[in-house]
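We examine the record.
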Amino acid sequence: MVSNDLIVISSAYTFYTFHSRMLNLLTTIHHRLGEVQARHLHTPLPELSKAYRVSAVHAMLGLEGSVLDPLPVAELVSRPLDGQDQSALEVVNTHRALDLLPTLDPHAIGDLRQAHGVLMHGLALDAGQFRTGPMDVLYGDPPPLRRAPADDLPVQVAELLHIVENDDTPPVIVSCMLHFALVYLRPFSAGNGRLARLWQRRVLMRHWPVFAYLPVEAFIHRTQPAYYAALEYADRQGDCGGFIAYMLERIDEALAELLAMPDPVRGGSERVAIFLQQVPARWFHRKDYRSRFPELSTATASRDLREAVVQGRLVRNGDGRNARYREAG
């Protein structure tokens, strides 16, 4: 049994108490992630991809007070032109930041600033630049909880990203700590909450591709008062353990809902794409392909690979059962 007193690191914004509730949630989350992998749910079907994106954008901005309904958000995601007002521009920027996210290094301070620059383009004069003056820390109505200084912000953010990269704690927990720490530090003059949620997503994506599309933000949005209460309590106590437990609950809910859906019906082209994402660039045989999709017959697996060769996605060496394949290019 894990003691409720087990203290884990370090500074005012990374300190947390490890509770048994966190361990139980972590175990459940890792079990669900294994099932996601086994059922090949880490990549959505194209028709679901847009729905997940709309849900993520709508919730991320809803947590910041946006009143846009999902329908106009969907229209702006489909046609990401520069918006005519602040609400539309927020949607377009968030959509573009999510598109950019896979190319960014979650541990690079320059990439963090780049993401903020995209999120806040046209919304803040200093988008992508650390603030240079102090900021009142508000949770709900005034008065301010505290005043956040601007001293050494680049150093503090760099140290935080270094901790995230090198900590041996399970990445799911570290990502939640990072989320709180960015809200606590408030390194930018605006947009810190949406950046914190975006960067937690980026850290999780590094380990589990499902988080590239899973709209965890929608589950936070459903419990928005509890989200801000957990942030405020952690800030007041100087211990973000309760906030980590709250975020683990939302991640667990998002994975549970994904796993409750019927398995998507995938065609050969989608199966080959999934397989190539999971294997290194090397030669493989039909049996390797079938080991990823044990439900396939030999004939279906052969057809998938043959069609991929014709389409130029794979190259083949040899014939019959001894044929070898690898990704083209």
